[in-house]
Model the fold of this input.
Amino acid sequence: MFALNRRRPGGPAPAAASGAPMRRDPAPSRWDYRYQRLMLTPLFRIGLRYGLPLVLIGGMAALWLANPANRALVTDRIDAAREMIHSRPEFTVSALEIIGAQPALHQAIEALVDVEFPVSSFQLDLDALRAAISEFTAVAAVAVRVRPGGTLEIAVTERVPVAVWRYIDGLRLIDNDGVMTGMILSRADRADLPLIAGDGAKEVILEALLLFRTAEPVFDRVRGLVRMGERRWDMVLDRDQRILLPSDDPVAALERVIALHEAQDLLSRDITIVDMRDSARPTIRLTEPAINIMRNVRETGIRATRD
Amino acid sequence: MRHLYQSQRAMRNMRRAAMQRGVVAILDVGTSKIACLVLRFDGPQRFVGADGVGSMAGQSSFRVIGAATTRSRGVRFGEVSAMQETECAIRTALNSAQKMAQVRVDHVIACFSGARPRSYGLAGEIALQGAVVEDQDIGRVLAACDLPDYGAEREVLHAHPVNFALDHRSGLSDPRGQRGQVLATDMHLLTVDVAAIENLLYCINRCHLELAGLASSAYVSGVASLVEDEQELGAACIDMGGGATGISIFLRKHMIYADSVRMGGDHVTSDISMGLQVPLSVAERIKTFHGGVVATGMDDREMIETGGDTGDWERDRRTVSRAELIGIMRPRVEEILEEVRARLDAAGFEHLPGQSIVLTGGGSQIPGLDGLASRILGHQVRMGRPLRVQGLPQAATGPAFSGAVGLALFAAHPQDEWWDFEIPAERHNGRSFRRAVKWFKDNW
Done:
């Protein structure tokens, strides 16, 4: 119970005051109703749950990053962290080791690897280095890696020259694949390697090597092989002797010649050309004096038999 | 006429859209309370009928997920009388139902009890063009019904085809596919004041809702509270609401008559208020706690404190005996029931094969009403409660909610109405064009 004369401080007449608590209206206001309906809209709720925090965080980050000093701070921090990792001793490379290269190639590679040691392994571009080294003609394969000890290891497999190829511009060294590995000034520089010549000779270098191996018994007399018409081989011996080999199966033909030589000393005789191009009819050509002698012998021989 | 057909069709489409979205609200705008149910539809008929169990009139396909009721304001005799107040009340009910359902509702199906419903029986007859009755013939025979002049200020609320007759065979419920020459139909038309609909529509639109259906509360409470046999054999449902008492007569599962008496429980309350000199709220409380219509000797001794709120608390300690209260209530209830009797007589209810009368609605909860009603209306009177539906809260299972539950059933499984059938175009050209469009729709 309360006093009947109770008045609200500064309030209106008691009748209006007593009417005030009766005004309680259970109905939601229009805006409240709209708000409730909005909050029950699924898309809006999803947006509120995920979109709003996202926008808030993103907005705050954007505001903070709008200041250039803050941006610089962020980049500095990132750089410092990266630097700290890169400069750790585990990642330092302090030495260069080149394996399997001749002195000339060794020097060339050393000149190519233009790095000041010690350096962080993150700053070495091994792929580019490998590609650059592979550019050398003398290099067949190369493996570039950083060894755990902190050494940059460049393992080179050099191309091995197997023959000398006489070309328009001079003497070239070529390897098994027909790739040029270098040039020499005179034949005497690499007297140990066989000589080949002619257009298209290097494409069939393996066949040439096989022929040289077949000609082993007369090796000291062999001057070289000449590719004729990019089709077949001529084997050139000293004393201007030539063995004309067929385009298919030249090895067998050469073996026949060698066998003939071993049996009858063919190549020591006074002949210029052994023509094996037609396997059914091997032909030899004698030198001029030999023909004359042959002719004389035949005439005298005939006469003698008549006599 | 055309306009009505189109607007009702639009409402049907809206209802279909709401069903597709799965959520629809039910709004029973009554004089004493506004009830709102939120229904969730789980796709088309998940119910699998077992032996002898049908789909139970469609109520297995939905579930009530939100229910709220609020004291009605601004509604008198089942019609909107103060727009703002009604809008507030609708908003209250809808807001709390939405909160309970945790879902936003955009479509609402509403019913109301007032607006002076009036029934018309129409008959139409056509000669069939083909040998067999087709869908178009149904639309044509319904369009052939000659409409009565029901007044400019009135609108058709329901138009049920009740009966079809083919040649001389009557009582067909679905004549499609049957052979015959002459197709006739009986249609039940219910018209109401257009102003009441407009006002309600305005209130609902102000709440940002789309109206997906409109029904008469007398009809839907009959759907909810009459059992199948009663609907089949003929029964009347008396929905005793706050401001109006709805009457609907069902025969062969169709409503054939509906009317409303513009008296209800609120009049009983105001009688008590005036007779006992107490405020309306006290009168309402006394009515619900102590009310009755049959006095016994015991009631003379049972004293009720009225507690008049006159401010003179010390001396105003009036009491009334329960017999006095009954003496005030009974004449008014009798008046209502006699008015109902008169309406039923006017409708020719005594000629129906079944004579059962079902009392439902909030006013039917007065103790002893069944005895009084059977003396006035006839012997086969029973108290009706709405059908049980899934998820309905216990508080909303009473007879006062038969309108709301019936509206839910109406939403889930509406009976065929006139506007569910295509009106065939009159001219041949238009028809062939429509057929071309239909062919295009069917094949693409």
Summary: Confidence is low (pLDDT under 50) at residues 1-8, 10-20 of chain A. Residues 89-158 of chain A form a domain with the Ubiquitin-like (UB roll) fold (CATH 3.10.20.310). Chain A has nine helices and 14 strands.
